[in-house]
Specification:
CATH class of the largest domain: Alpha Beta
Shape: globular
CATH superfamily of the largest domain: NAD(P)-binding Rossmann-like Domain
CATH architecture of the largest domain: 3-Layer(aba) Sandwich
Radius of gyration: 21 Å
Structural class: alpha/beta
Order of helices and strands: HHEHEHEHHEHEEHEHEHEEH
Strand order of the largest sheet: 6-5-4-7-8-9-10
Helix content: 25-40%
Length: 310
């Protein structure tokens, strides 16, 4: 950020919660670039508040569903993100949740903290082995592929569902439908972007297709999963476990039933939260912003083919 401050006037919104729309519009006035986080809703109104000076919206993370890219393209505003840099870090986290789900780590931690562990019980808090189990990956992009590599190294069978065959399958097998993947998997991990097509991708019907001992892991976007349907499936035993780094809504209300369920692990949207990765993400954002300020195409532009660079 020091590089950015040395070349441009910088306004930083520091607050414990996402900025309300009016505050975003006020801060955007006259801006040449906006550095946004996933919690910032950058819509046409924010862009219009910035005016003709706005050249770039740089998204801090990979997913940019919080930015109205169609409105940006119509206004000749470039949109950039941080692809690739957080794939390995997020994959590490996702696979950690696979392991934590298999061995009921969060549940066991709470059991000890409540003072309920009195003696060794050979039948207590039994989990399942990951070696020899089947991992189903929904979305075989950079993150999904990195998860596959880790799972295969641990002796898992890996299948994946993707619109197209992955360039490098890493030994994973592509299946023909989402339902086929759900029916075969002991663990299902989600790595699809949030789009109109993937919103609610995992609903009541899909959860009924899963195995009763299966675990669902979501480090992608909360709205990919129907939260009410997932809550019902966990209550009824249709599936055994869920590990969620993202939810819908996010964060969950303090009285939400998922918060009191023993068979749920909940995290605060932290899959990419390492010092090294966050530094790399920031550096990519700064590179994109400085390029746009020079009138050059940002290196990580997602709508480059719709922008007039002349």
């Amino acid at each position: 950020m020091d590089r950015l401050r040395s070349e441009a006037e910088t306004v930083v919104l520091t607050r414990p919660a996402p900025a309300p729309p009016q505050e975003l519009r006020q801060a955007a006035r006259g801006a040449s670039a906006i550095l946004a986080h996933v919690t910032d809703q950058i819509d046409a109104a924010v862009m219009d508040a910035a005016g003709d000076s706005l050249k770039l919206i740089a998204e801090f993370v990979v997913g940019y569903d919080n930015v109205d890219t169609a409105a940006a393209s119509q206004r000749n505003i470039a949109v950039a993100n941080t692809p690739g840099v957080l794939a390995e870090t997020t994959a590490e986290f996702a696979f950690a949740l696979v392991q934590a789900s298999a061995r009921r780590l969060a549940e066991s931690d709470r059991f000890v903290r409540r003072g309920e562990w009195k003696w060794f019980d050979p039948l207590g808090l039994l989990g399942i082995d990951i070696h020899g189990s089947t991992l189903g990956i929904v979305g075989m992009g950079r993150i999904g592929s990195a998860v596959a590599t880790r799972a295969l190294a641990c002796g898992m069978r890996v299948i994946y569902y993707n619109r197209t065959r992955a360039d490098d399958e890493h030994g994973a097998q592509r299946v023909g439908s989402l339902n086929e993947l759900l029916a075969q998997s002991d663990f299902v991990t989600l790595h699809s972007p949030l789009t109109p097509e993937t919103k609610g991708l995992i609903g009541a019907r899909q959860l009924r297709t899963m195995r009763s001992h299966a675990a669902l892991i979501n480090t992608a976007r909360g709205p990919i999963v129907d939260t009410a349907a997932l809550t019902d499936a966990l209550r009824s035993g249709e599936i055994a476990y869920a590990a969620l780094d993202v939810t819908d809504p996010e964060p969950l209300p303090t009285d939400h039933p998922l918060l009191s369920m023993e068979n749920v692990t909940l995290l605060p949207h932290m899959a990419s939260a390492t010092v090294g990765t966050r530094r790399k993400m920031t550096a990519m954002n700064v590179d994109d912003i400085l390029a746009a300020l020079r009138g050059e195409p940002p290196p990580n532009c997602v709508n480059a083919d719709q922008i007039d660079w002349s």
